[in-house]
Amino acid sequence: MEYLSAVELFVRRLTSRSKLERPSISALLDLDGRLVPVQRGEDLILPGHPVSYSTLVVRGVLGRFDQMLDGKRQITALHIPGDMADLHSLPIPTPSWGIQSLVPSTTLQIPHERLRRVLDSHPDVAIAFWRDTVVDASILAKWTAYIGRADATTRIAHLFCELGVRMAFQGMAAKDDFPLAFTQAQIADAVGLTTVHVNRTMAVLRAACGLSIEKGRVMVRDWNVMASYANFDDSYLLMSR
Amino acid sequence: MEYLSAVELFVRRLTSRSKLERPSISALLDLDGRLVPVQRGEDLILPGHPVSYSTLVVRGVLGRFDQMLDGKRQITALHIPGDMADLHSLPIPTPSWGIQSLVPSTTLQIPHERLRRVLDSHPDVAIAFWRDTVVDASILAKWTAYIGRADATTRIAHLFCELGVRMAFQGMAAKDDFPLAFTQAQIADAVGLTTVHVNRTMAVLRAACGLSIEKGRVMVRDWNVMASYANFDDSYLLMSR
DNA sequence: CGGCGACTTGAGATCTTTCAAGCTGCGTGG
DNA sequence: CCACGCAGCTTGAAAGATCTCAAGTCGCCG
To answer: Quick one: which of A49, B55, B187, B219 has the most CB atoms within 10 Å?
Structure first.
């Protein structure tokens, strides 16, 4: 029943930001699809290829990415369990980005047709989905700002602040100790740096605030120190109505 | 009647991507608000301050931005006439970003209340608005990718490719010759570089593809050369259904 | 035990920033 | 009509951040 709880997580987050009618909520909770296990590093969706389902993260972490001609990747969003990784594909079925699995994951592919049926009879769900897309854009804007204007230490600290807070918000773990088996190459793709430089910067943060990734867990000794490196302010995550 | 045509532009763009019922279209065309002239450099909306209207660009260019503690700005989106700069504020009335006017502009402040009334009676409009937000996010993702993974020349070339194509799509001008009185400092804020480096890079592009800004007009002699510097592919702008 | 992926380290190259100064065009006040 | 001042553009030189290339280490799995 693992995937049922992912749908529940998704609905719980929607209702934390949007008032939904009771029938809308049950229609959402009835959503179902194909449960798909995916390996680490697998590309689930490729840019320019139309899709007919949306991808709910049940387990693991997915990354939205864009790719340069020389193959360099930039991750533009991370999705943890309870996130619909490409709600976008419902209004725009041919994405301009790709989605890859960053760790061993499980997804639930929910057919667009089913989602559209819910939207057609429950207009408040459309607003809730729209609102979720706006939160996603708010996070993306923050990433853009940090990649454009912050140095390596600040960017990486900010990434882990954000991930911790989001994990905690989903009730998965504590913000200073959560499961996440990222490689340094994946961190590099997320913050727009090279692996070598990420490696050096992680060493700095390890010394400064006790940030470490061990056995697939992120741990932070002095979370507040990391947050001050990041100038972290969680309001862009819009965690309350 | 200048501002009426901005509403028309907005509606025309919505209908180019979304099928809308005839009554929905007339409800949208009936939208009205307060026409506000703004000076270059003025901040229209500040991060964290709630707003009760959405801002339609009638004339000029607005920039969405985020700001670091030291005051450095990163522009995360540009809005040209016919764009609703903060449709986002309708589902999320307290923005985490600001909006500034980059050139002398005119905006139409449309009360959220009026927009909500349209949404309530025309569910297809909600989907169209949502779709517009997704296009906005698609552009933002492309910016993130270029800021994270492309060098200065490529980033700036890409910016002007995008702006040209968007201007042409709105029917404002040709993609290789359009009105836009940006300063190099504003370009720097958009691509995440310093003014000095933008200056040097503009000189390179001027020599390579005849890109220039004179008397508030952007002109490009060899658009295809610029596009190849940018590796430009317009599909992320989703200009057709 | 071998091999592979991920992490670490060093050194030099390259890109971008910083600081500083001078230039240019334009609007304003005298 | 001219002088001034300011904003924006340009240029030089040095500092700094990040990247590239290259090699070596570590731990885990077959």
So the answer is: B55
| High-pLDDT (> 90) share of chain A, % | 95
Residue A194: CB less than 7 A from any atom in strand D: yes
Whether residues B149 and A123 touch (CB distance < 8 A) is answered with: no
Of A77, A134, A148, the CB nearest to B74: A148
pLDDT tens-digit series, residues A172-185: 899 999 999 999 99
Of A126, A148, A231, the CB nearest to B126: A126
Residue that has been written with the tokens 């907005």 in this structure: B10
* SS (HEC) of chain B: CHHHHHHHHHHHHHHHHCCCCHHHHHHHHCCCCEEEEECCCCEEECCCCCCCEEEEEEECCEEEEEECCCCCEEEEEEECCCCECCHHHCCCCCCCCEEEECCCEEEEEEEHHHHHHHHHHCHHHHHHHHHHHHHHHHHHHHHHHHHHHCCHHHHHHHHHHHHHHHHHHCCCCECCEEECCCCHHHHHHHHCCCHHHHHHHHHHHHHHHCEEEECCEEEECCHHHHHHHHCCCHHHHCCCC
B137: nearest CB among A88, A142, A236:
A88
Distance (Å, whole) CA A30 – CA A20: 15
Checking if the pLDDT of A36 tops 60, the result is: yes
User: In whole angstroms, what is the distance from residue A74 CA to residue A137 CA?
Assistant: 16
Share of chain B above pLDDT 70, in %: 98
**Dist CA A156 CA A162 (whole Å):** 10
A191 CB-to-strand D distance under 7 Å = no
Where is pLDDT greater, at B171 or A89? A89
Residue of A nearest to B120 (CA): A123
Q: Which amino acid is at B139?
A: I
* pLDDT at residue A3 is higher than 60: no
Q: How far is A135 from chain B (nearest CA, A)?
A: 8
Q: Find out whether B159 and B218 touch, Cβ atoms under 8 Å.
A: no
CA–CA gap between residue B62 and residue B75 (Å, rounded)? 10
pLDDT score recorded for residue A241? 63
Residue B238 scores a pLDDT above 80: yes
Q: Which domains does chain B have, with CATH numbers?
A: 2-124 (2.60.120.10), 150-237 (1.10.10.10)
Q: Residue closest to C7, CA→C1'?
A: A199
From CA A86, how far away is CA B69, in angstroms rounded?
32
In this model, does residue B61 exceed pLDDT 80?
yes
Does strand D come within 7 Å of the CB of A197?
A: yes
Mean pLDDT of B147-174: 96
